[in-house]
Amino acid sequence: MKSICFLAQFPPPMHGLSKAVETLYDSRLKEKYRFSKIDITDNKRILQTLWALLRCKTDLVYFTPSQTVGGNLRDLMFLKLIQWRGLPCLVHIHGGYYRQLVDHDCRYWQRRMNYDVVGRLAGGIVLGHSLHGIFERMLPDEKIFVCPNCVDDVFIAPSVDEKMERLQNTDGPLHILYLSNFIETKGYREVVELARMAQEKGAAGRFVFHFAGKFFDAAEEDWFKTHTRGLDNVVFHGVVSGQNKVDLLRQCHLFALLSRYPNEGQPISILEAMGNGLAVITTDHAGIPEVANADNGYACSKHSIEVDKIYEYMTACYENRDVLSGVCRRNYETTKRKYTERQYIDNMDKIFESVCKR
C-alpha cells in the first residue's frame, strides 16, 4: 500500500480549498492508500511544519500551495525541503492565479526558484483544461493533470422535477441568488445594480434578489448597505451553511457570479447552483467557461459586463419559463454526471495511480 502525506489546509475554516482537501482525505481512497497529514492552515506553526516534513516518511507528498507572494515564499521552503529529502511531490492548484503570481508578481530570484522546484515535481494538477497553461513550459504535458472541482453530495438536490413543475406552471417572481464572499471583483455590485434596475423599471415584483456570503472589508459592507437601502426586492441572508444553504439554493432559479476575481479557479458555488437546477449568469474568467457558459445560462466577457443585457436575459427567462426550465434541468443533469464527489475521487485516484507508478 502506497503512502501519501497531505501537506494542505484542513478545516476550520471551511472554504473551497479546505473542503476539497477534507473530501479527498476522508474518502474511500483511505482503503487503497495510507494517508497522513500535515495541516498548514496556521502560518504561525511553520517551524512545526518544517520539522514534520523532516521526519515524514511517505511515498508521495500531496501539496496545495498558496497564490500570494508571501505564501509562495513559505511554499518554496516546503518544496525545497521535500526535494532535498528526495520525496516525490504532487502539487494541486485550487485556483487560477499561480502563473500570474510567478511571472509577474515575484522578483526575478523568486520566479527562478519557482521554475526550478516546479520542474522537479512528480506532477501538477489544475482544475480545468483552460488552466493547463499554469504549468506550461514548467512541466512536461504528461505531468500536468486535470481534475475539476466537485459538489458536496448534500448540496445536490435529489430531484428538480417538482421545482421545474412549479417554475413552469406559476407566474410568480424569479429568485436570483448571489452566494459568495462580498468582494468587488466577484461581481456582487453588478447584481445590486440589476436589483435597482428592476425596481426602477417597475418590475420589482418579477425578481427577488438574494445575497448570501461574508464581508471581509467594512467598506464593502457599507457600500452594500448604502446601495440596497430602499430596494424592496433585495433579501440579505448573511453567511449560510448546512440546511439553510440547501433551502436557499432550492428556492432560487438564477445564480449570478460575475467574477473577475484574480485568484478565481473554478467556483464550487456555480456547481452547487447547477446541482440544484439554477441557470447561471457569469463571465468567461479563469476556469469558469469549462463548467458554465452560454449553454448553462448567460455568459459575458469579464472585460465587458453589460448589466442592461443581463437584465434583458433575466426578462426573457421570466417570460419564457419553458426555455429557462430546460436550461435548469440540463445544468442539474450535467452536475450529477460530471461534478459529484464520486467523480472527483475517481479522478484523483487515477492521478495518484499515474504518479505513484513513476
Provide key terms for this protein.
single chain; 358 residues; alpha/beta; six-stranded parallel β-sheet; 12 strands; elongated
How is this structure best described in words?
With 358 residues, this protein is α/β, with parallel strands linked by helices. The model has no long low-confidence stretch (mean pLDDT 96). Helix 2 packs parallel to helix 3 and helix 6 runs antiparallel to helix 12. It contains 13 helices and twelve strands. The longest helix is centred in the last third of the chain and has 18 residues.
Shape: elongated
Share in β-strands: 15-25%
Radius of gyration: 22 Å
- Unreliable segments (pLDDT under 50, ≥5 consecutive)? none
Strand order in the sheet with the most strands: 2-1-3-4-5-6
Distance between the termini: 15 Å
How many separate helices?
Answer: 13
Mean pLDDT: 96
The run of helices and strands is EHEHEHEHHEEHEHEHEHEHEEHHH
Largest sheet: 6 strands, parallel
Number of strands: 12
Query: What structural class results from the helix and strand content?
Result: alpha/beta
Instruction: Summarize the amount of helix as a percent range.
Output: 40-55%
